[in-house]
Specification:
It comes from Stakelama flava. By secondary structure, the protein is of the alpha+beta class. 37% of the residues lie in helices and 27% in strands. Strands 1, 2, 3, 4, 5, 6, 7, 8, 9, 10, 11, 12 and 13 form a 13-stranded mixed sheet that branches. Strand 10 and strand 11 form a beta hairpin. The longest helix has 18 residues.
Length: 355
């Protein structure tokens, strides 16, 4: 008969994200964990705090010897429009409890729930990670799209399904150029393109300083790819590179991008660029089930995988911030009609409360 498994007694504390030793230990834990993501790293939480003014926290579960058994990044998100929430991880598509053993999950979740109540927040959101105990609402309406990169530019093009490959070939024949970097011009052009893109979709743009903070915190592990028609930026994406995977996170195109097939050029160029940077995987992010963006990613040959989020509220239902929700239909329609200068001025004030 096997001896029963015993776990050391764990304590949970709020780590100091501005302490180099704490951050180094958390980073090492995330990098060693097979389920780790860039959204679990201290850099992500710090950039969110710097960029959106929402307080970042990091709960850690450790044993008597100080060894880490689990972490939970949290963003204390406050918004007069969307309410107050603890989010793991803030402004991310992933997060949730990252634990090396099951014994760390419940203490971390319990500590996060206690913190949620103590800080006057109504909702606690866990975007992925270990499943909490009973009493949580499950949201499985999102799909993730991750796939392998090919060994060469030609093989990458051949790996893309025929219909989408034809669109990429047309983009390659167009008068488009591609550049990558992190300088002031590329940052400016990325923000201009991204802001117009999300305005056209009817959603507010994030503060410009969020993108600046991400580039500064992630250093050489982040860059911008810009597609130009002559000198005009028509598509751009800010990407993270971590543990052999590229994460194209904030990207979009201007109205003319569709006709120019600039987005097709952008994502194909990024796949090739990421491979040259040593990446073997492409994380195309999340999309809602049954939406156009989900279909678009399938057209590239990505197989959708279900994502599971968890939420719990003190009073009533957890907050709902999905712009596809019918309750926001009129607001989305109105936002699309705003002049770009107005959307760019008002948008960051709203978007920083989305979390």
């Amino acid at each position: 008969m096997n001896a029963p498994i015993s776990f050391p007694k764990l304590t949970v504390r709020d780590a100091d994200l501005y302490d180099d030793n704490d951050c180094a230990r958390i980073t090492a834990f995330v990098e060693a964990h097979p389920g780790g993501t860039p959204f679990h790293l201290p850099q992500w939480s710090i950039a969110v705090e710097r960029g959106c003014g929402q307080r970042a926290r990091m709960l850690v579960a450790q044993d008597a010897q100080g060894a880490l058994h689990g972490i939970l990044p949290l963003t204390e998100t406050r918004s007069p429009l969307f309410g107050n929430a603890m989010v793991s991880a803030g402004f991310a598509v992933g997060g949730g409890v990252l634990a090396s053993d099951d014994a760390a999950v419940t203490p971390l979740v319990d500590a996060a729930w206690a913190l949620t109540q103590n800080r006057g927040c109504n909702t606690l959101e866990l975007r992925g990670g270990a499943r909490p105990a009973a009493g949580w609402q499950c949201d499985d309406s999102y799909l993730g799209f991750v796939g392998d990169l090919a060994q060469s530019d030609e093989e990458q093009l051949s790996a893309i399904p025929r219909k989408q490959r034809a669109e990429i070939r047309k983009s390659l024949k167009g008068d488009l150029t591609v550049e990558t970097g992190r300088d002031a011009r590329q940052r400016r052009d990325h923000y201009a393109v991204y802001a117009e893109s999300v305005r056209n979709l009817g959603t507010p743009v994030f503060p410009k300083r969020l993108f600046t903070a991400m580039l500064e915190e992630f250093g050489e592990s982040a860059d911008i790819l810009v597609v130009r028609e002559k000198q005009r930026p028509v598509a751009a994406v800010l990407s993270l590179y971590w543990r052999g995977t590229v994460y194209p996170y904030w990207g979009g195109g201007v109205h003319a991008a569709r006709t120019l097939r600039a987005n097709e050029r952008m994502y194909y160029a990024l796949m090739c660029h990421a491979r040259r940077r040593g990446c073997a995987r492409f994380d195309f992010g999340r999309s809602k089930v049954g939406t156009g963006p989900a279909a678009y990613k399938k057209n590239w040959g990505f197989t959708p995988e279900p994502l599971t989020y968890w939420a719990r509220a003190r009073d009533g239902e957890p907050r709902k911030i999905n712009p596809l929700s019918p309750k926001y239909r009129l607001q989305v329609a109105a936002w699309k009609k705003l002049p770009l200068w107005a959307a760019n001025r008002i948008g960051p004030l709203i978007a920083k409360g989305l979390g």
